[in-house]
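hi! just following up on the protien thing from before. the input was this:
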Amino acid sequence: GTTYNAYLIVDKKVALVDTVEHSFAKEMIEKIKEVIDPSKIDYIIANHVESDHSGSIKEILKLAPNATIVGTANCKAGLEKHYFGDWKFQTVKTGDTLSLGERKLTFLEARMLHWPDTMFTYIEKDALLLSNDGFGQHLASSKRFDDEVDQDILMCEAGKYYANILWLYSSVVLRKLEEVQKLGIKIDMIAPSHGVIWRKDPMKIVKAYLKWASGEADKKVLIVYDTMWASTEKMAKAMLDGINSEGIEAKLYRLPCSDEGDIIGELLETKGLLLGSATINNGVLPTVSPFLREMEGLRPKNKIAAAFGSYGWGGGATAAIEKSLKSAGMELVAPAMTIKWVPDKAELQKCFEYGQAFAKKINAAE
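and the predicted 3d structure came back as:
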């Protein structure tokens, strides 16, 4: 699950920062009415065009027809192409400000985190950064703040969110964090548009982003595979035993029994990936293909990998896996391990030793 977070700032002027997905518009409006008459909204701050954050703008403007939308030039173009509205729009860029009275909003463009239109909004009086998708989590909870939820679950969900949505843009993340640091702004709280608000220790998630974006990873291995008649699975389990024998932690995930998003989240802080598939029609199993495409799209940073799998006659799965892993930017550190038909005792021993050798590569990796 997840949450859609919109933020209402009531000052001399009233601003609504982001909205919610269209199907939740009525619920959001009812909550606004508990605080203020929606017609009194002066500004809609559009940090991001994507419809889970902009999907209720039309409903808000029906109630507050004089409100001005505030966003980047890319945001203006995106909203016009999504909703085809002739609305009042104030275009802003990094460093521009908007006074609401006691509170001043400062805008910071965050292009490609994760769309070209994305921006952050900073409230100096409250030392509050409204970061939209940045620092978010798909964590469904009635609680509102980081210190109110289980910390292990929180960081797991934050990592999974980063891996599945922002990983490709890690270089942008590093530049943006450096830019924010150079601005010297005080941040006591980070309020994303999904999940809980970081109030107890906002630097905890900032430090995590620095780690993830830099490609730092623990000396662990993921073995991800699918099997047809259990031969590839037998190989995977023998490799797991070999890795464990070297004192390296390893986890086994079978596709599609395991959630792809969970696997990608786990890979974020894992150094090594062993990816296996039985061969069908000279390629990988259909359950493995989507994972390969996802890896190519996300381009995980600073990973080592290898391929394995069983086949009956022509083979082809491991070659396809290796091609995808290379395309994803991973370093192949061993030739693929392939076994014809069902692995016998001697071949399973080779798989065990293959796991041992891969574990040693993990130990030697920077």
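The chain has two domains: 7-214, 218-364.
Residues 125 and 303 are 42 Å apart (CA to CA).
cheers
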